[in-house]
Amino acid sequence: MHRNPDWKDWSVLVVLTLFWGFSYYFIKHSLTGFNPTQIAGLRMFFSALALLPFLGQAIRLIPGKYILTIFLIGLIGSFLPAFMYPWAQQKISSSLAGIINAFTPVCTYGIGILLFMVPREKSKIAGTLIALTGAVVLVAFKPGAEFRAEGLHLFVAFLVPVLYGFNGNLIKSRLGQFPGIPMTAMMYASLLVLSIPLSLMSGAFARIPASLAEGNSFYHLLALSVLGSALAMALFNVLIQRVHVLFAASVTYLMPLVSIVVGWLDGEQIGWNDLMGFACILLGVATMNGLLSLDKKQQSEEIQS
Fold this sequence. Notes:
The chain is mainly alpha-helical. The protein contains 17 helices and no strands. The protein has helices at 7-21, 23-30, 36-50, 55-61, 67-88, 94-101, 104-115, 122-140, 151-174, 180-190, 192-201, 204-214, 217-242, 245-249, 251-265, 272-288, 296-304.
């Protein structure tokens, strides 16, 4: 069972959208001093450090039998996507990658219905499709948009939304009884067995002094780790536990809107596709999350019967 989101949940969703929306900015500037593998390793490492104050609470509250499950959600929801998307984007266009990422709520809801007994709701299905249409319009009709891909890289890119879909449903169904922030702290702590060796082998730790001397890439990497990973993932897990998993997944649709606003403030032009995509996304998110419900008639009939 789940409840409809209240103003607190919407506030958390907005903050989460800002954190993840600005992650692309932080990644861009982190790449001036680190390569993608180094960024991925250090991002996981510093996320674990940022949430270290909550690890003691996590150890007290979460029985040891759940550690493997928590490691699994960290692996498929954070660690693997940090490598799969950069690898896939070597052979697929950024426009196509943006459209593929918009399939995350579709995969989340579809996997929930097929494997986790999430009920079908007309408003959620309709809202998901409307928002997906908006995301496609936003990306596909952008001036200069390209659509190129190679088979294996395209397959890997499509695997990421599927992994996100499994991740959200696993958290909701298997770990919903644990507080979101301590659980996230344990998740990143468990990933240290991967992130520390990766950072050592890639030379990430050794690269930090040079990056500090060359510019501010390290500070952007810290912001990416603390805001875009540690706090954002904690908020995401809290939302999944409080409301419908699709509400938390709808952040994927809202993130491009942050990019539009930031670009506009930076002097970029807003096109017709931005306005249409913006409107469709907002309409879809409102519909899928109960502000515009197609199920009211059905619910009133069930109450009367």
